Amino acid sequence: MTKKRRNNGRCKHGRGHVGGVRCTNCARCVPKDKAIKRFLIKNIVEQAAVRDMAEASAYEAYALPKLYIKMTYCISCAIHSKQVHGRSAVERRNRAPPQRFRPKRDDAKK
């Protein structure tokens, strides 16, 4: 029988069994190596209150802490929330990681 993917959609190579994790969206149990993992980085303080806190703060340059959350998705939820998308047979052969999106910083070179 033909194979659709070289790794069968998993990252298990050589391990017999891999533990499961829960999808953060639908709570489906997914093998840990098959789950789509993404880091969600958010400010602890919402954007509307950042300026008010900066004005009320006693410190000049206080960096507000961020919230780092590791999201794990099952394949269905990852496709639905556009974290990943289906690729054609030719594009599936490309094993290079996708280009990372890096927003341009204002203070980089002035």
Structure report:
The protein is α+β, with helices and mostly antiparallel strands and 110 residues long. The chain is built from three helices and four strands; from the N terminus they run E-E-E-H-E-H-H. It has a two-stranded antiparallel sheet. A hairpin with a 6-residue loop joins strand 1 (20-22) and strand 2. The mean pLDDT is 89.
Q: Gist?
A:
This protein has 110 residues and is an alpha+beta fold. The protein has helices at residues 47-56, 75-80, 89-92, and strands at 20-22, 29-31, 36-43, 66-73.
Strand content: 15-25%
Low-confidence stretches: none
Number of helices: 3
The string of secondary-structure elements, in order, is EEEHEHH
Global mean pLDDT: 89
Estimated structural class: alpha+beta
- Give the fraction of residues assigned to helices: 10-25%
Number of strands: 4
- Report the radius of gyration as a whole number of Å: 20 Å
First-to-last CA distance: 59 Å
Strand order of the largest sheet: 1-2
> How would the global form be characterised?
elongated
What composes the largest sheet? 2 strands, antiparallel
